[in-house]
Amino acid sequence: MSTVNLGLPRFPSGGPPRGFGNISATEPFPKAAHRELGNAQLRANLGHATHTIRDKRLRVVSELPDWEALREAGSAIKTEAMTRLPELLTQFEEQFTARGGTVHWARDAAEANRIVEELIRATGETEVVKVKSMATQEIGLNEYLDERGIAAFETDLAELIVQLGHDKPSHILVPAIHKNRTEIRDIFLEEMPDVDPELTDEPRRLAMAARAHLRKKFLSAKVAISGANFGIAETGTLGVVESEGNGRMCLTLPETLITVMGIEKVLPRAQDLEVFMQLLPRSSTGERMNPYTSLWTGATPGDGPQNVHVVLLDNGRTRALADQHGRSALHCIRCSACMNVCPVYERTGGHAYGSTYPGPIGAILSPLLTGVEAEENSSLPYASSLCGACFDACPVKINIPEILVYLRGEDVSGGTTGRRRRSLPSQMDLALGAASWALSSGDRLGLLEKGLPVARALAGRDEKISRLPGLGAGWTQSRDVPAPPSESFRNWWRKREKEAEKGTHE
Amino acid sequence: MSARDEILARVREALAPAEVGSPAAEVGSGGAEVGPGYRTASGLDEDALVELLVDRLLDYRARVEVVTSDGLAEAIRTRLEGKRFVAPDGLPTSWLHPSLAEGRVTDSREAPVDVVRLDELDAVVTSSAVSIAETGTIVLDGSPDQGRRAISLVPDHHVCVVPVQTIVGIVPEGFARLDPTRPLTLISGPSATSDIELERVEGVHGPRTLDVIIAR
Ligand code: SF4
């Protein structure tokens, strides 16, 4: 009996270690999504938000005659940066150090947290201000510091809302997008000690309350923690792109500045900024330019923090890099355009993805950082209808749908390492494994088709199966499966041919 | 093995040997011989540059006025008269009318004004290094006529002078004129947030009023 290889990939074991921290779902996506879908307020808030940003983005993108050329350049620069990464990282280190900064390296979340804690301890401070940063959220820095008696204050308005509300961000650009104005006012009234009890839910009043609340903190803070949108290898320059000025406050006023940056954020040349400073603002907030961008290179005598550090973070990035098919997920500049156009994100919201990185990019990046065989993230690559809207929106042209399909293959075949952590194969494995077994041989398929009349008996008189067991249950929750035909196509074809033969003989 | 060496080793291991530093990959903004494919010059003349910049700044709800260089000192005076403000020590003396002397606090890297004091002032006046018309972006680079980053951040009202010869058309022209190793601040309108139901609110932590005077 001959079998056909269906091309499900298998890789030798090994590869760089996985990342840890807030990049793993705590429950499978379908379960989380099901719960979030029940929240009508969330869905209304999200629908409004994603459509508003989407429209703004389209307007400002269509203004630029060379948008496609910029996307090409952005993609090419990122590809170059990845292939030259060892050299660029050491160059960045040299330059940053030469200009008065100190470079630290962290293999994973735990090591990065420890380094940051030690740097804060050395200053004798127990309070720090923070600029919104995906990397520090990924490593769970706030929680880590909190457990050790160091208070980290988020200063971005949305992050402040999330922090005061003891909540989690649901969008990488507007993390409190799941909260409406009344909910935000209630959080402020409850959690801000010095707030005006007459506070209304007008956005301006709320923003001013946040300004007043944080002002004293900014003026007295000695230590700030930030992320970085870019690190320039050529000059050792770091950059933060923001809107409110809380970033400028943190990057300018304190004496000590600690930046946590993923190793994939390094760009070869300062000139590359001319590309990314066009791609990023238009793709993320849908503005021609964001209100404020700060660029700093080590320490500038007499201007800004003099004690300047950067922690270069791996935490699974080298693992993603080792995956040739998934590597381009590291090109992501965290603009959020892909989640704003995603029909799945729009309905489930960011919390359903369980990770710091939600939406289409999260569905590929989280499993690439942890390894798709990490049980928690293995359902993420299925959180997509593969409509392709994310690919079209992505300013650095990451082919998210292609990587999703690839990761689904990996999930079923056991991942690149073969070190699958599940003790039992999931139903999806069994089902797809069975399909693979059956479809690769005509005889096996024939055997299976004999089961058709049984399945038909399962269906009622309306010829529909409305509840399948196991994995199939998810499918039949929202739709009916037509009863299988009484005989298979292949059977019918064979009979038809025989009858035709008979016909010619008579 | 140190974390540094281990991470670098992992990166090298992750990249197949043939890929590392392959010249074929160098096709970014500076790598290609044929040019980058996107626009690197706008070709706009001075009038068009000023018109575009004004349009963009108004769109961000900044205040904008275009004056001749003769009228600059007067334009600054009307904005700062009777106010307490900080100015960097390198600001041209001719820009500040004698009547402003009383309210003026001078800041420099050598003699910085304390941040609490800055917070009590009404305004700041600075020059600027480069402005990008297409995006309405003004760049400060910490030169003596722009001062330390803190002074253009803490006071609530920023009067910013844009000399007409510093205006360029598009983003690549802007970066071409800048030294990336200086502390750079790119400002596109007053600070703003859209974090509450995506409704834009101007003025959060940075200056709530951005007052631009274009001098030609
Ligand atoms: S994957 Fe692309 S579209 Fe999505 S956040 Fe990253 S850069 Fe933006």
**CATH structural fold name of chain B:** Rossmann fold
Shape of chain A: globular
* Overall shape of chain B: globular
Strand percentage of chain A? 5-15%
Low-confidence stretches of chain B: 23-32
* Oligomeric state of the chains in view: heterodimer
| Number of extended strands of chain B | 12
Q: How many beta-strand runs of chain A?
A: 12
Ions and ligands? iron/sulfur cluster
Mean pLDDT of chain A equals 83
- Please mark out the parts of chain A with pLDDT under 50 across 5 or more consecutive residues, or reply none: 1-13, 416-425
CA-CA gap between termini of chain B = 60 Å
- Supply the CATH architecture of chain B: 3-Layer(aba) Sandwich
Averaged pLDDT of chain B: 91
Q: With helices defined by DSSP (H or I, 4 residues minimum), what is the helix count of chain A?
A: 23
Biggest beta-sheet profile of chain A: 6 strands, parallel
User: Radius of gyration of chain A from the CA trace?
Assistant: 26 Å
Helix content, binned percent of chain A: 40-55%
